[in-house]
Design goal:
The complex is a heterodimer of chains A (about 120) and B (about 280). Chain A is of the alpha+beta class and about 120 residues long. Chain A has a domain at about 30-100: Ubiquitin-like (UB roll) (Roll), CATH 3.10.20. Chain A has two helices and five strands; from the N terminus they run E-E-E-E-H-E-H. In chain A, strands 4-3-5 form a three-stranded antiparallel β-sheet, with helices on one face. A two-stranded antiparallel ribbon of chain A has the order 1-2. The longest helix of chain A is centred in the middle third of the chain and has 12 residues, at about 55-70. Chain B has about 280 residues and is mostly helical. Chain B is built from eleven helices and no strands. Chain B has helices spanning about 20-40, 50-80, 90, 100-105, 115-120, 125-145, 150-180, 185-195, 210-215, 225-240, 260-275. The N and C termini of chain B lie far apart (about 40 Å). The relative contact order of chain B is 0.14. Classes of the chains: A alpha+beta (about 120), B mainly alpha (about 280). Chains A and B meet through helix 1 of A and helix 2 and helix 7 of B.
């Protein structure tokens, strides 16, 4: 089955406004796209490192191992098929983010952090 | 009979122990030749991700080969000190002493001790996958046993390499299943690959003289002891891949003793060209 859909992967802004990237998918031949998250060491979060193609989740994890951890970058891998990532619309940036600009009191900068607390 | 060669103190080894050098070279040659074959896929892989995967495996194998060659060079240089008449290998080389480079780049075809399986051409992706699978199953059980070799250097290389091979085995097993139990075309390609490669699997388990000797001294592994586990694993994966386990066929052998197919010549021509043409060149 051949179908078309408009999709902005992880919030990329379309080249032409309102057109989006046209994703054409032929389920018989194309491997789906997967987003890859790597945890570099214990205690840290998984971080998005990129994307790759794979036939299924198992292959996506192994491809991620080969593509993204060959220089000792990680100790744990998460994969998510890209179609399950829903991104905010760049057109919403004004009412989404700008209202926070003048609300500095929301930052926890009025406390002294003890030295033992790392990764804040 | 245990000696520590890590510091190059091997000059006391009597020449009758030449099997240790041959055995180490055999392990090195298997890894180098298959690694070289896999490296031919670089930039030609079916998809980017698998191109990187097969190239990683090539690099793993070439890394293993380097470890074995370095150790073999130590052994050979030790023999040279012990008995200069044994140094024919060195006299022909461009360097005064054996080194990992001289062993990889300056030996002739009949001196290579790799199994015929490792030198077979890449063919299509199915054939490359199956060749890797057959060899990884073998190498997995081999290194598992070699880890407890009385030769501490061989044991250490085996232990380090086993982690890599465990992944090679996993990766190639999954591809055998994926292709065997995939489309009509991928299944057919796997059947053809089995037909082309099965006759080279027998040699893996036929012990050459130096293997028998090494096994007797508890320095190496008698490959015939690996056969039952190898067959069991191959049957398990083939069954999952809906591939028939082949019937007995006449097997090809001789690679371990230096009797190679013409394919090794083309590999060596490619591999050794630079060092043969521009001796001692570096880049």
């Amino acid at each position: 089955m051949n179908f078309q859909s408009r999709k902005n992967y992880y919030g990329d802004i379309p080249e032409e406004k309102g057109n989006g990237n046209i994703i054409s998918s032929d389920a018989r031949t194309d491997w789906p796209l997967w987003e890859i998250f790597i945890r570099s060491k214990q205690g840290l979060d998984h971080k998005h490192v990129g994307s790759l193609h794979a036939a299924d989740a198992q292959m996506a994890i192994e491809n991620a191992r080969d593509v993204y951890t060959r220089r000792m970058e990680g100790i744990s891998i998460w994969v998510v098929e890209s179609k399950y990532v829903h991104a905010s619309n760049p057109d919403d940036a004004g009412n989404f983010y700008e209202p926070a600009e003048d609300k500095v009191y929301r930052h926890p900068t009025f406390y002294d952090l003890p030295d033992e607390v790392k990764h804040m | 009979m245990e000696k520590n060669f890590k510091d190059g103190e091997s000059s006391k080894v009597p020449p009758s122990e030449g099997f240790r050098e041959a055995y180490t070279l055999h392990l090195a040659d298997d890894a180098l030749v298959l690694g070289h074959r896999n490296s031919e896929w670089c930039a030609h892989g079916p998809v980017l991700e698998q191109d990187i995967a097969i190239t990683n495996i090539a690099l793993d194998l070439i890394g293993q080969a380097r470890n074995f060659y370095q150790y073999a060079a130590q052994l050979i240089n030790g023999f040279k000190k012990a008995e200069s008449s044994r140094a024919s290998l060195l006299e022909r080389g461009f360097e005064a002493e054996a080194s990992e480079d001289s062993l990889a780049y300056l030996r002739d075809r009949h001196e290579f001790k790799n199994c015929l399986l490792t030198e077979q051409p890449n063919g299509d992706w199915a054939k490359t996958i199956l060749r890797q699978f057959f060899f990884s199953v073998y190498q997995y059980f081999l290194y598992e046993k070699l880890q407890v070799s009385k030769d501490h250097q061989l044991a250490a290389i085996a232990e380090k390499s086993l982690k890599e091979v465990t992944y090679h085995l996993r990766w190639s097993s999954e591809w055998v299943i994926r292709l065997g139990d995939g489309t009509e075309e991928s299944h057919q390609r796997m059947l053809r690959a089995i037909e082309e490669l099965w006759l080279y699997t027998g040699e893996l388990f036929e012990a050459a003289g130096y293997e028998q000797h090494a096994a007797k001294e508890d320095l190496g592994v008698d490959p015939s002891s690996l056969k039952p586990k190898w067959e069991e694993k191959v049957k398990e994966i083939f069954s999952e891949a809906t591939l028939p386990y082949p019937n007995k066929v006449p097997m090809e052998g001789g690679g371990k003793k230096g009797d190679h197919t013409e394919h090794l010549s083309s590999i060596l021509a490619d591999l050794q060209f630079m060092q043969r043409t521009y001796p001692n060149s570096e880049w």
